[in-house]
Design brief:
Blueprint lengths: L2 H9 L12 H6 L10 E4 L7 H6 L3 E6 L2 H10 L5 E5 L2 E6 L2 E5 L13 E6 L11 H11 L5 E8 L14 H8 L3 E10 L5 H5 L6 E9 L1
Parallel strand pairs: 1-2, 1-6, 2-5, 6-7
Antiparallel strand pairs: 3-4, 4-5, 7-9, 8-9
Length: 217
């Protein structure tokens, strides 16, 4: 699964991963990160997530997204008129308290995240196949200073019952990926399959949504 896969998904409007409302776990657990108003929050592989609008009410939001269609759609759908420029490998769309970098996450450098005080990941880790997840976590870790908190939301299910994405990421894998450089606290776990008919149709018998608070050491 490479960049072309995701670009084609947006091109073909295969965006079932896009949620039509703010994730309730964000609203419930975000206060535990104890940020100050105006702090900058980083949202990797952000798509056109409405969660960014919720975060933008109190913080500066910095997102990175591969697909130009996703970035354009985010601003159009939310009646925002961004300013456009370039920053290294990225095209930049900027509106009040919101900056989206359009390009490859792996091209990011620490200086571009110098003002980030927290990270929110609802759809990055679970969008990546097993082989890419260690590289993603290693690069994310390299971009952030010690003490940075991360609110991570994952899905955990029997991968034999359904092909991703979204992929299943177990608690054991979260520990294996992060424990070398991050503290890990699980905040929440709940089977959400009853409210997810599209996943029942794909054959799942259970679907656990898990929420973690991590902090870079």
């Amino acid at each position: 699964m490479d960049a072309d896969f995701w670009l084609q998904r947006w091109q073909n409007k295969q965006t079932g991963f896009h949620q039509l409302e703010v994730n309730p776990r964000l609203e419930t657990f975000w206060p535990q990160l104890q940020l100050q108003a105006g702090d900058q929050v980083f949202v990797p592989l952000c798509g056109k997530s409405l969660d960014m609008l919720w975060l933008r009410e109190h913080y500066d939001v910095l997102g990175v997204e591969l697909s130009p269609l996703a970035v354009e759609s985010f601003f159009t759908d939310n009646d925002l008129e961004p300013e456009h420029n370039r920053q290294g490998e990225f095209s930049v769309c900027r509106a009040e308290r919101l900056t989206l970098l359009c390009g490859d996450f792996f091209d990011l450098r620490p200086g571009q995240l110098a003002h980030v005080r927290a990270v929110y990941d609802r759809a990055s880790l679970i969008a990546l196949p097993t082989a890419i997840r260690p590289r993603f976590v290693a690069h994310l870790t390299s971009l952030l200073p010690p003490g940075t908190p991360l609110l991570l939301i994952t899905l955990d299910y029997d991968q034999a019952q359904m092909d991703g994405p979204p992929f299943s990421v177990s608690g054991a894998e979260v520990r294996a990926l992060f424990e070398s450089h991050w503290s890990i606290q699980r905040l929440h776990a709940h089977d959400i399959l009853a409210g997810e008919p599209r996943f029942r149709e794909r054959g799942l018998s259970s679907l656990s949504e898990k929420v973690y608070l991590l902090r870079k050491q």
